[in-house]
Specification:
The complex is a heterodimer of chains A (about 1000) and B (about 210). Chain A has a six-stranded mixed sheet, sandwiched between helices. Chain A has about 1000 residues and is of the alpha+beta class. In chain A, about 40% of the residues lie in helices and about 15% in strands. Chain A is globular, with a radius of gyration of 33 Å. Chain A contains 32 helices and 26 strands. In chain A, strand 14 (about 560-565) and strand 15 form a beta hairpin. By secondary structure, chain B is mainly α. Chain B is about 65% helix and about 0% strand. Chain B is built from nine helices and no strands. In chain B, helix 2 runs antiparallel to helix 3 (about 45-60), helix 7 crosses helix 9 and helix 8 packs across helix 9. The chains are: A alpha+beta (about 1000), B mainly alpha (about 210). Chains A and B meet through helix 2, helix 4, helix 5, helix 7 and helix 13 of A and helix 2, helix 3, helix 4, helix 6 and helix 7 of B.
């Protein structure tokens, strides 16, 4: 590294030149290159004015820039190179393939390629087409790489790299980044060799360095490196993200290299909804590890004291050592086989703190998956694709899958149902007559789904929450007129979607009172704004700025606003100012630049600091966090943050969150934060939505009317056989907790309407109460001034209740005779259930939903609902495609198994209850029948499990047939 | 713009439309060549690497993220980012083998041969001087400076391509510029370009309907 020059400017004394320190110079460069904006820029310009030394340096820099720019080499590739390139590209064009069709197409491609090259696939779909010569796989590692690799083995860099196993980085590797280190491939023997090398090259097998014969541009090759036949030389890679590979064999003219087949992990395809790439454990490879296998065969230089740079390793030996398992894989090239991919040891290049966020901001790589995959189902699907290499691994994986289908000890049947399918089951009213849950008014899920659909994608299952869809729409029920905070509405009608004629849908709606703007309490708002690099994507930060500008205009002079920005650190942009100083506030927000990372904790801490400093007992004190997702927060940090929010809430500060942008949107955590802070989570993806949230819905945004709101619905078991609550899966409470006032439940703001839908399986109607709704809540808290100026929530927190009962006679004759609001809620809920592939909605015709919605749209004249119908139309073709995707056979088997286990558990439970209730024992005939049922169930389960095992073994190439073929190839055993 | 966007070209190439690949090459080759030269220090090996990058593009083109699709500018940035990163990694490989082979002598010879097709002796001299000046820099500084000065990438784009933090990029640029300015001082014969900057206009606020102020 060059040391810094003392610049010798004519008019400048050394003293003055030292007056510019390094930090200043960096700012100067940033300024010259237009990286500074807004207030930073203005501040620097002021600094510039003050310092003649800076001005001179600026001139010097600008002059240098000018010089260099004038000297821009503007050359392209030379004609010969370009010709070759285009020709090679055309030859290889048909070979790239993506996606799961890989293996199938691979087989087809092999048949097409025919004589030039015969390849054996492990799936044994293709007959071997030739003999094998050598089966070498060369593993090379550069010396520097080796050194730094050792250093970095367990260091922070390694951990960071593992932590950065986010999609962006993975996608980078998976997308064709291969660095190869091929020594000169020209053998000393005659004519065929260059042709082979050429063939290999065009098939993408050999990575060359410049001195190798480069596509006939150079005539002389360097001296052959040694008595090695041309083969595939691959660089080794250490990575925590190595995929698993199968080994195949290929014949290329009269030499052979061992090729690898690729089993794709997950590939990012548009519309995949951002399924997270899988991380596979890999073993690191080092020259030391490989040396024993080299058998003395090395290529390349290799200086004294340093292991040879590249080693040729016998494949079987490598495999036996478990090394080949851990080689990372890259996608297929010609569809047939693939190179082992290489991950650049970026330690060589210096830091590798890849800002995944930056990558994604540049549109590279996929956005993060929202929510977690539904582990069982996805796991089953993925594992079907991923080949297990050893028998033990296969067996273990299979057992895991099978285990997931069984009931966990101590788990209730309905827990198991939920765990497996992600939906709540129907509960028998006789056993479980009441439903208790905490209220939720978040609506982010709907806006998020809308954003996905507008881009032609289906939202990921985990991101769809039925209650948030339903609650997005405006209240249709009249506000309470009698001064109470809530009006409760109950409506019951037959379900238009269920096959069972006994099914009805109950709508429970709670309408909070309206608060006129002049009535609302003053607010002290502290905006905590994420200005990290990812906020540049899609102009997210700009959207936030406009949204806040809108909000500022709704505020009164009795309201106050403070602004905090955070990227790597947090900083106060403005302290708490009255909203009447709107100009200053707007200017400050407008000037927010894009900076670095996403340190939410710093942002929230700073925000709370400000909010506390200006805590006003008579006002609603709220922090509003605006972010596009709070990044890959570790579990400990997440817990810490939630604690922080909770503490602040105890001191009297609410937290709202506003999510922006889609790719990085981690709405689950933003919602959690808002929950802890008893605030609302909104998703703002457009100016229209910003207006909706911040203008039309301002009172709803900031003015609470009740907190810790809970609902309990009691059903009459004589009239209701079983019931199911749509949505609110994360909100369930135990029955006894309904009157437990220490429990944190939801908050309801002015004008909100909260709707809950129940699907009921009815018994023949009698008269009398069918369902009773209890609503329990506390008034919004007031703050007492403590003795030492500390604020605390009011000690007395008296909870209040309201209730309403639905009589059996009130059931409506048909769906169409229900109110528009009811119909809208049902249709919207049905859409949500369809999107999240609820087990209860399977088989329901989307066409019905579409038809009913169109009909209702005319009647409603609600622009939100019109937009909803448009979304249905967008979703229609996408759902069509999705429905045609085959469920892998293994998954079907597993589903079947789970069902059997579930039914078994239900029967078990029934028997327990009967015994506990002291019912008389069943007759011997009945007993026999029961036993037979159980026996059949057990046999079916066993059969299915065997089938699952066999299926997976087949897929991983371990079945006897495939094994035999492997042996013929000399591939060698995997039994260890 | 009438020209098809990078995303379009990629899609066309996937379908096998003739000319799509050539168009992509034509679009990106210069920047890639400059980058590879910055890393490798000589033209020939740079060309090889760039060729390899484009071959990879041909064989396994990346999928542009859904967010980016439809916006030509961002598609281009995304593809450029991919290309540059692939290139960078290939260059690192090449460098390692190069060092092994002691190509410095060859490079020195080739450096002299760089130029070609310039108008005047002065221009050629300047070019040479600038290149020599750049070559005196350590690779990491040279790389970021080439990306910044020639390809006019922003700090964050450079950070993404090189895999560094933005702060590091800023530091490298600063130190590199200092060194380069010193190297080229004799050339900068006292003529200073004065630039004026116009303050960016304050964006107008969206109009509102019926807000209570």
């Amino acid at each position: 590294m060059k040391h810094e020059h003392e610049h010798e400017h004519e008019n400048e004394t050394p003293m003055e030149s030292e007056a510019i320190d390094q930090a200043q110079h960096e700012r100067l460069c940033a300024y010259v290159f237009d990286e500074l904006q807004g207030t930073e820029r203005a501040a620097f310009e002021a600094e510039l004015l003050r310092s003649p030394a800076l001005q001179r340096e600026r001139e010097r820099l600008v002059a240098t820039v000018g010089l260099v720019k004038a000297a821009v080499p503007d050359e392209g590739l030379s004609a010969a190179v370009r010709r070759d390139l285009v020709a090679s590209a055309r030859r290889s064009r048909f070979r790239f393939l993506r996606g799961r069709t890989l293996v199938r197409v691979a087989a087809a491609a092999v048949l097409l390629l025919g004589g030039a090259l015969g390849v054996r696939l492990f799936t044994a779909r293709v007959d071997p087409a030739g003999r094998l010569a050598t089966r070498d796989i060369a593993v090379a590692r550069a010396p520097e790489q080796q050194g730094s690799y050792e250093r970095a083995a367990n260091g922070p860099r390694e951990k960071r790299r593992e932590a950065a196993a986010a999609d962006g980085l993975q996608a980078l590797r998976g997308l064709g980044y291969v660095g190869d280190d091929a020594p000169a491939a020209a053998p000393e023997t005659a004519a065929p060799a260059p042709a082979i090398a050429q063939e290999l090259r065009t098939l993408g097998y050999v990575g060359e360095n410049a001195s190798a014969p480069a596509l006939d541009r150079r005539t002389s090759a360097s001296a052959p490196a040694g008595p090695m036949s041309p083969g595939v030389h691959l660089s080794a890679l250490k990575s925590a993200q190595a995929g698993k590979i199968d080994l195949g064999a290929a014949r290329m003219h009269d030499s052979l290299s061992l090729q690898t087949n690729v089993w794709k992990d997950t590939w990012r395809t548009p519309g995949a909804g951002g399924a997270a790439g899988r991380e596979n454990a890999g073993t690191r490879l080092s020259i030391q590890q490989l040396a024993p296998l080299a058998g003395g065969r090395t290529t390349g230089g290799g200086s004294a004291g340093w292991p040879a740079e590249s080693v040729t390793v016998d494949s079987r030996a490598a495999q036996a050592m478990g090394l080949l398992n851990s080689m990372p894989v890259q996608g297929s090239r010609d569809g047939v086989a693939d190179k082992v991919s290489v991950l650049q040891d970026l330690a060589y290049a210096g830091e590798q703190d890849a800002e995944v966020v930056e990558l994604e901001a540049l549109g590279y790589g996929g956005g993060g998956a929202s929510g977690e995959e539904h582990a069982n189902q996805e796991g089953a699907r993925q594992s079907r694709r991923e080949p297990m290499f050893t028998r033990e691994e296969v067996a273990a994986q299979v057992e895991q899958l099978l285990d997931a289908t069984r009931v966990v000890p101590g788990e209730s049947a309905s827990d198991m149902f939920f765990r497996y399918w992600g939906d709540a089951p129907f509960l028998p009213a006789a056993e479980q007559p009441s439903s208790t849950f905490a209220v939720d008014v978040d609506t982010a899920s709907y806006a998020l789904a809308r954003a996905y659909l507008s881009r032609g994608q289906l939202p990921p299952r985990e991101a769809v929450r039925t209650e948030e869809f339903v609650n997005y729409f405006k209240a249709d029920q009249p506000a309470p007129a009698d001064g109470k905070p809530f009006a409760i509405g109950l409506e019951l009608a037959p379900s238009p979607f269920a096959k069972d004629a006994r099914t009805e849908l109950l709508r429970v709606s709670m309408r909070g009172k309206d608060v006129q703007d002049f009535e609302r309490q003053p607010v002290n708002l502290t905006f905590v704004i994420d200005n990290s690099g990812s906020m540049r994507e899609g102009d997210r930060l700009e959207l936030v700025k406009r949204a806040l500008a809108l909000l500022l205009r709704q505020l009164r002079s009795s309201d106050s606003v403070a602004v905090v920005k955070f990227s790597n650190e947090a900083a106060v942009v403005t302290s708490m100012l009255p909203a009447s100083r709107r100009g200053e506030l707007e200017a400050a927000i407008q000037a927010l630049p894009i900076e670095g990372g996403t340190n939410v904790e710093a942002g929230l801490r700073k925000g709370y600091e400000l909010a506390l400093a200006s805590l006003a007992p008579s006002a609603v004190n709220r922090v509003i966090l605006c972010s596009d997702g709070v990044g890959n927060i570790g579990e400990t940090s997440a817990k810490g943050l939630l604690e922080l929010v909770k503490d602040a809430y105890k001191k009297g500060i609410y937290l709202n969150t506003v999510g922006v942008g889609m790719g990085n949107h981690n709405d689950a955590f933003l919602e959690e934060l808002a929950d802890k802070g008893d605030g609302v989570c909104n998703y703002v993806d457009s100016d229209a939505e910003a207006k909706r949230v911040f203008v039309d819905g301002l009172a709803s945004l900031v003015q609470p009317i009740a907190r810790d709101v809970k609902i309990q619905v009691e059903f009459d078991p004589a009239q209701v056989e079983s019931w199911r609550l749509l949505g609110y899966e994360n909100r369930a409470l135990r029955e006894q907790d309904f009157r437990n006032d220490t429990i944190d439940a939801g908050e309801v703001n002015a004008g909100h309407q909260v709707t809950a839908l129940y699907e009921l399986v009815r018994r023949p109607s009698r008269s009398g109460p069918l369902a009773t709704v209890h609503l329990r809540y506390k008034p919004p808290f007031a703050i007492d001034q403590g003795k030492e100026g500390e604020h605390a929530r009011a000690a007395a927190e008296q909870a209040l209740e309201q209730e309403r009962t639905l009589q059996a006679s009130a059931v409506l004759p048909g769906f169409a005779s229900a109110t528009n609001g009811y119909q809208r809620a049902v249709l919207v809920a049905q859409f949500a259930e369809t999107l999240r592939q609820s087990v209860h909605a399977r088989g329901d015709a989307f066409a019905d939903l579409l038809r009913e919605s169109r009909r209702l749209e005319k009647a409603l004249g609600d622009p939100d609902f019109t937009e909803f119908v448009a979304l249905l139309e967008k979703a229609n073709p996408l759902l069509d495609v999705r429905s045609k995707e085959e469920t892998p056979h293994v998954q079907q088997l597993l589903d079947e198994l789970s069902k059997l286990h579930y039914e078994q558990a239900l029967r078990e439970r029934k028997r327990e209850l009967a015994a506990a209730a002291g019912e008389p024992e069943s007759s011997p005939d009945e007993k026999k029948a029961d036993e037979r049922v159980e026996l059949e169930a057990r046999e079916a389960i066993q059969r299915l499990e065997e089938e699952v095992r066999a299926e997976i073994e087949r897929a991983s190439g371990l079945d006897p047939d495939t094994r035999r073929q492997l042996d013929e190839l000399g591939y060698g055993g995997d039994d260890r | 713009m009438d020209e098809p966007s990078d995303g379009r070209l990629l899609a066309e190439w996937s379908r096998g439309v003739a000319g799509a690949f050539e168009a992509l090459v034509a679009r990106h080759e210069r920047a890639l060549l400059r980058h590879s030269r910055a890393l490798l220090g000589d033209w020939r090996s740079g060309e090889d690497v760039v060729q390899e990058v484009f071959l990879r593009l041909a064989q396994r083109p990346p999928t542009l993220d859904a967010d980016v699709q439809g916006d030509p500018r961002r598609e281009s940035a995304a593809l450029a980012s991919w290309l540059h990163q692939v290139l960078r990694n290939l260059c690192m490989d090449t460098k390692r083998s190069e060092m092994r082979r002691k190509r410095r002598e060859e490079e020195a010879a080739e450096r002299e041969a760089i130029s070609g097709g310039t108008d005047s002796v002065d221009a050629a001299d300047t070019r040479l001087a600038v290149e020599r000046g750049l070559l005196t820099l350590p690779t990491d500084q040279r790389e970021v400076l080439v990306l910044r000065l020639f390809d006019e990438k922003s700090y964050s784009e450079i950070a993404a391509i090189t895999g560094r933090k933005i702060g590091t990029v800023g530091w490298l640029i600063s130190v590199g510029m200092k060194a380069l300015a010193a190297e080229l001082a004799p050339l900068a014969s006292g003529e200073v370009v004065r630039e004026t900057r116009v303050a960016p206009a304050v964006p107008s606020m969206p109009s509102l309907q019926g807000g209570v102020s």
